[in-house]
Amino acid sequence: MDGYYFMALLSYDGIAITGISACVPRKRIDNRSLSEPFSGPLLEKTIKTTGIVERRIADASTCASDLCCQAASRLMDSMGIDRDTIDVVIFVTQSPDFKVPATAPLIQHRLGLKKETAAFDVNLGCSGYVYGLSMAYAYATQAHICRVLLLVGDTPSKYVSSLDKTTGILFGDGGTATIVEKKKDAGKSFFSLNSDGSGANALQIKAGGFRHPSTPETLANVTHEDGSIRNEEHLTMDGGAIFNFTIKQVPADIKKLLEFSNTDISDIDYLVYHQANKFITDHLTKKLKFPLEKVPYSLGKFGNTTCLTIPVTLVSEIGTEIETGTKNLVLSGFGIGLSWATAILTIKNCHVLGMIEV
Amino acid sequence: MKKEEFLSELKEIMEIEDSELTEDTVLRDMMEFNSLALMGIIALIDENFDMVIEADAFEKVSTIKDIMKLIGMDKFEK
Asked: Complex ipTM, two decimals?
């Protein structure tokens, strides 16, 4: 492994994803039915470019943790997992139940897990599933850890202005559960993790934290030049900056990890991207000279669900393939932070539940 | 990539059907210049010249020729 110093590169042997499930709210938003400020040819072009046709939105009383608990309960029941074998709960989200405490201990209690369970939250978005998996794999290597429950969920509908022309049609809500544990024939898996905080304001909720605390002013809706209406506690996005960052960093990171893991790209069955914008990821695929038909998309049905787009795509688009066969996957998450991560791993005979709707 | 090919690809990205696009066309005069078009132009340049131009750089761009200067006039095939 010469020449790979000073990089967050990880490798594991004999650890696998053995079960995965995803839960989305029943309520659909059809982007084509949106009214002002969205309309006309630009709306149609945005739908065509991003690939986002429909999204799911949680009701006011449903949190990301609720959707994750549904996904986890049904997955553990379906796999016949004794809940005492769950030793770690990792909850990746940008929509915690409370500002404090962390949501993962609440989930430990709600799922009826034992008190000897490690439970903590991770605040990451687009790169969150790959980061979360890298941690789950790390814990799973430990002799006394039987199973890690990785929960990745978010409700961006609660922090995005539905009247923002840049972000208002992109995001959807959901919650997922992934079981990670030791498996003799799992083979090797590899991760590359990266960050660049100089781009933190490219995707940001400026106010409501402790740098810019919430005030009546930060909550006052303002009409912007382009007709968008939002306040300072809504997510803002600089699409151009994100696009630049993505096409520079993502293909390079995928290539780096392929090289590090000594994997030929032709041995990859599926390249599963964070689902943000089909135009961008199609461009990345072309840059990598990878076949477009081996890149699954769930964008059309669920939109950008932030940290959980990758597990949602695994379940909804290639669920049968990873349940019945052996598939080599590249997972690529990138965006808010800025933060980006790549994983190369093999999934075989994974227990996959069909999409759950609540 | 030749200049003519570049212009014709740009025309497609901006969805201009009934008017001409030349090196002297002013970008912001066109209705179709928006963030989606900008993404298309950056991708076009990346694909054909293997070079990522920052979105910010387009703020100083006036005409199509200015975009071509960002790429470098010598990079176009004769």
From this structure: 0.78
